[in-house]
C-alpha cells in the first residue's frame, strides 16, 4: 500500500494490493482518492 499527494495538502490517493485474477494470476491494484490520507486509506479497506 502506498500514498501519493495529488493536490498539495488537499487530495490524496491510496493504492493497495487487491486479489489476484484467478484466470491469469495477474496482480490487481485498488486505488481510491480522499481529502485526507486517512480517508483515502479507509476507502481502500
From TrEMBL:
Residues 25-35 have a biased composition (Basic residues). Keywords: DNA-binding. It comes from the Bacteria. This is Arm DNA-binding domain-containing protein. GO terms for molecular function: DNA binding. Residues 11-42 form the AP2-like integrase N-terminal domain. It comes from Planococcus maritimus. Residues 36-45 have a biased composition (Basic and acidic residues). Residues 17-45 are annotated as: Disordered.
